[in-house]
Structure formats: C-alpha cells, structure tokens
C-alpha cells in the first residue's frame, strides 16, 4: 500500500463547491485483470467497501463527518452519475430532494470474507442486506428461503457495482423467471441473446416514464412494508432495436452468494450506505420522480 494527496469536489448537496485537498489517502496497485468486465475506459477501482481503508472511511476521518456515502449510477454512457461522501441532502434537477424519500434496511455483516484466500479469517467487506422474499406483480416467488440466509459465509444477498446485472442462484433464477413469464403473458417471447435467457419483442410493449410496461419486481427486505421496487427501466435491457431481455442472469447451482444485485438494477436509483447506523437506504427509480442520476448540478457555485 501507498498514500498520496487527493483533490475532490465539495458540495452542499445541490451544486458543486470548491475543490478540497485530502492528504495521505491510502491506495494500492493491482493488475489490469481486476478491470475485466468493466468499461474499457476504466483505469482503476474505487474502494467503497466495508473496510477501514475504504474511501468513505478515509474521507470521514479527514473531514470529521459520518461514515456515510451515497451513489447514483447514470443509465447513460454519455452522462455522469454522482457519489456523495458524507450526509445529504441529495438534490437533483429540477429541485428533487431524494434523501427525504429513502427507505432503509439493515446492513448484514457476513462474518466470512468473500474476497478469496488472501483475506481468510476476516469478515466480508461486501454490503449484504436482509432480502426475505421476491414478489412480481404482488405474487411471491417460491424460493428456498434458506438460500437467503448466510451460513458459514455462503448464501445471502449483496449489492455489487462490479457485476453488470443481477445474478441469482439457479433455483432462485428459475422460480423468478417462471413467475415473471406468467405475469408477462402479454409479451411476445423471442430468441435469447447472451448473457440473457429470456427475451421479448418490444414492438408492442408500451413505454412508460419508468421504462417498458412489464411486471413490477419487488425485493422485499426485513419487513413486508420495506421493499425495493424495480420498474422496466431496470429490469429490461434493450439488446436490439426490437428486442428487450430480462436483465437477470443464472449464477449456477452453488454460488458463494445466492443473489448479487448488479449495477444495471442500481442505475438511476440512489443508494445510501450508512456505516454509522449499519443500514442501507434506497430510493427506487428516480425516473418515477421525473429526474435521473445524471441530473445533479455539476456547475460550480463558487
């Protein structure tokens, strides 16, 4: 490991402020293989995990604010998303204050590292959440609920910006798809397009503010009243001009983690990680609020 001085932009949650200097930021060098599967323009990986040397923890120490950050991934390859270190507000054009409408669920500590033998004996730095069920159009997906629990480091649900799409253990994936297809009987199935297994014609699929008009997916957390709703913009991927695919993939019969919520499902959703209170906050789709993650005002107010 090494350290260096970093310069980042400050903000009041509405507009960009002056640049501030952070001395002694710890970083490490790695091989380019770590960038496999990421954008071709990616030069490195920002450490945002549950670690004492993650950027949120280092910045919290430097500026004496809570160990908390929020990320909002843009759905556009030509527009920026935004990460906030510290507390809100999180205001997007046209004056949409997202922090007031977040729902919260506890962060679960996986006591066993999911990062390989090098970190054996340490707890996982990934962010696990207490997903208890999945509903599609209000209908429960029949799952082996034991897979949603963490046992000896295996199972459970985590979020990941490294995985482009949500990955599910095979039995969960099959049950999920069966219910989705039953609820999407009005959609015309077409040939699959890798890595997706279930694709549909978009010719006769109506478009809404929150994406294609397809069945609603609810990720139900620790309480039935706390659920992360996934609309068509985050469940369906446009792979061809007239073809959309269900943006979830089969992770095999024995994955380390049963469900990994991937980056596509996080786009245009604000996700807050609060390490002080050990909880995750989520907004669901900002499209429903008539804004996006690229609508933060990056114009300096200074």
Automatic annotation (TrEMBL):
InterPro entries: Aspartic_peptidase_A1, PEPTIDASE_A1, Peptidase_aspartic_dom_sf, TAXi_C, TAXi_N. One of its GO terms (molecular function) is aspartic-type endopeptidase activity. GO terms for biological process: proteolysis. Residues 1-283 form the Peptidase A1 domain. Coiled coil: none annotated. Its main location: secreted. Pfam families: TAXi_C, TAXi_N. Gene3D superfamilies: Acid Proteases (2.40.70.10). Belongs to the peptidase A1 family. This is Peptidase A1 domain-containing protein. It comes from Corymbia citriodora subsp. variegata.
């Amino acid at each position: 490991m090494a350290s260096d001085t970093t310069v980042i932009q400050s903000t009041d949650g509405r507009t960009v402020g002056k640049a501030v200097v952070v001395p002694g930021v710890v970083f490490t060098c790695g091989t380019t293989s770590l960038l496999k599967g990421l954008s071709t323009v990616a030069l490195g990986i920002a450490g945002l995990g549950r670690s004492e040397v993650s950027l949120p923890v280092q910045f919290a120490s430097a500026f004496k604010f809570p160990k908390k950050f929020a990320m909002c991934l843009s759905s556009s390859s030509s527009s920026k998303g935004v990460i906030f270190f510290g507390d809100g507000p999180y205001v997007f054009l046209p004056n949409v204050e997202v922090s007031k409408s977040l729902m919260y669920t506890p962060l679960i500590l996986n006591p066993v590292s999911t990062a390989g033998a090098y970190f054996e004996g340490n707890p996982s730095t990934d962010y696990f959440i207490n997903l208890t069920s999945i509903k599609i159009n209000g209908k429960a997906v029949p799952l082996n609920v034991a897979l949603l629990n963490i046992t000896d480091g295996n199972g459970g649900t985590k979020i990941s910006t490294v995985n482009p799409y949500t990955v599910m253990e095979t039995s969960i994936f099959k049950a999920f798809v069966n219910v989705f297809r039953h609820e999407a009987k009005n959609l015309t199935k077409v040939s699959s397009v890798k890595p997706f297994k279930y694709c549909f014609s978009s010719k006769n699929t109506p478009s809404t503010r929150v994406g294609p008009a397809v069945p609603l997916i609810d990720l139900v957390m620790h309480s039935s009243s706390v659920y992360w709703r996934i609309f068509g913009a985050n469940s369906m991927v446009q792979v061809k001009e007239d073809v959309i695919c269900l943006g979830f993939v089969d992770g095999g019969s024995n994955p380390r983690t049963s469900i990994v919520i991937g980056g596509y499902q996080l786009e245009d959703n604000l996700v807050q990680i609060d390490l002080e209170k050990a909880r995750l906050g989520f907004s669901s789709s900002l499209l429903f609020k008539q804004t996006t993650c690229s609508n933060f005002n990056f114009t300096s107010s200074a």
